[in-house]
Amino acid sequence: MKIADKVNNYLQEKYTKDKETRNPTQNHEFFPSGAMMCNRKEYYNRKIGRPEDPELSRIFLVGQIFHDWMEQNVLSGGEAEKHFKIQLDDMEIRGRADYVDEKYVYELKTIKFLKQVLENPLSHHVSQINLYLGAFNMRFGKLVYIEKNTFQVIEHVVEFSQELYDETVANYKLLKTGLDADTLPSRKQEYPGHWECKYCNWKDECDGNKNVREIKEGTIEGDNRTERTHGGDEQPNAGTPSNGLY
Ligand code: SF4
Description:
This protein has helices spanning 3-22, 39-48, 56-73, 123-136, 162-181, 195-198, 203-208, 212-217, and strands at 29-30, 79-88, 91-100, 104-111, 140-147, 153-159. The chain contains eight helices and six strands. The protein has one domain (21-217): Lambda Exonuclease, Chain A, CATH 3.90.320. The structure holds iron/sulfur cluster.
């Protein structure tokens, strides 16, 4: 068998296996990668089904290799892949931080262009690491960005913000309310100019405000949304479609 075929087979198997654990299936389960992301998009993902994208396994693997390298050669004295669960009445947010030592929670991100984050980290990454800080009751985190083609690294220190934490939790609660009631959450405030909209797989549904129940029952059977390719060049978080900004 050709090497390329072996690699492709491995990735296909990995994609199938990961898919079973990557996506939350119940209304009360949430992952930190969704922190402050579009609730409407996640509502479509859960009610209709997350779009298939086997290419994600390549992106995940590249990210994983970077992570492993950092953990083996750079980070020390702490714990890799530290799990947490935030229990909130009838819902839970669970995940794992890339690395935690005595002083910092570390979140490692591979990125295509480091210039995107030279001045500031991306806001949804700040929301994500802030959630970890709340979960571990820690004050400081580091968002570490690695440019894939050059291996240039930049880090941003993030200080815990209770305000952002509360806002993030409130956003998850809004999503849960929508999921429980079969009610489509509202669009992003900045729609359609927000970067998430630009890369969104559900833009057609969102544009047309199609009813999810109708979609499920086949009124627009066959899923007629436009296929969109992903930029696919950064390590996305679990269950998150990939583009240059994740
Ligand atoms: S197009 Fe924008 S507002 Fe609509 S679901 Fe996608 S990300 Fe959300």
